[in-house]
Write a structure and sequence with these properties.
236 residues; 6-stranded mixed β-sheet; 6-stranded antiparallel β-sheet; globular; 8% helix; mainly beta; 3 helices
């Protein structure tokens, strides 16, 4: 508070504050509840092939736009926008991500794929707040390859490494205006037992890396909860 106290002793500064509309007192700021996503139960398993025709149509949709900007900048919805859906059965949590991106960039492998265009899933299985680099929470990235339906994957927190070795599957395609990824995560990987009404923390994010080295990131909900490196996520 030293700088504030010293500057407030200067009459010209106090006068400038008044002219700018500053006034004494406090304002109660809104503290919105985390958004809630829903994964519908499947009657039959979904094939992981980057073909979404076997997904039911009436599924809850999470949309990521410039309103979810975490950092960087975008010029318009064609520059970056994402639509995600989730489903589940007794063995897997399924997801699909349909991303608009006017310049697909992929330069890296393994733990540095976060520098490319990719989809990330931040997962807090115990719903007690995601702790950065925690051994109980997940940050998993998925990036499609341009010339095949294969997808590069990496897990940075719990189960660090290539999650394909632990049963995760994903396929993707790069299109003229973006890319699509379809995947499934074993419940055993997350350490959860699936059941109706299960709630966990999960926030999808999309990263945009352009050819001019500019970048941006949309994150559905990623709020510092007050503790060091602890974040509140959306709920699934």
């Amino acid at each position: 508070g030293l700088i504030w106290k010293v500057m407030n002793q200067v009459p010209e500064v106090r006068q400038a504050f008044q002219k700018a509309g500053f006034r004494d007192g406090t304002i109660q700021l809104s503290w919105p509840e985390p958004p809630v996503l829903r994964a519908s139960r499947l009657a039959q398993p979904i094939s992981i092939d980057a073909d979404l025709s076997d997904w039911p149509q009436a599924f809850h949709n999470a949309t990521l736009t410039e309103h979810h900007l975490e950092y960087g900048s975008v010029s318009d919805p064609q520059d970056l926008e994402g639509h995600l859906r989730f489903a589940w059965d007794e063995r897997y949590l399924y997801f699909q991500a349909n991303v608009k991106d006017d310049a697909f960039v992929s330069r890296h492998l393994n733990q540095v794929i976060w520098r490319d265009d990719l989809v990330e899933l931040f997962i807090d299985p115990e719903l007690d707040g995601l702790m950065w680099e925690s051994s109980s929470d997940f940050q998993i990235g998925f990036r499609p390859n341009r010339d095949s339906r294969s997808v590069e994957m990496w897990s940075w927190f719990k189960a660090k490494g290539n999650p394909r070795d632990r049963g995760l599957e994903a396929k993707g395609i790069v299109t003229e205006d973006g890319y699509l990824i379809e995947g499934r995560i074993p419940w055993s990987f997350l350490g959860l037992t699936p059941q109706l009404g299960l709630v966990m923390g999960l926030s999808p994010a999309i990263h945009d890396s352009d050819s001019d080295r500019s970048e941006a990131k949309f994150n559905l909900f990623f709020r510092n909860s007050g503790a060091m490196n602890r974040y509140e996520l959306a709920k699934l």
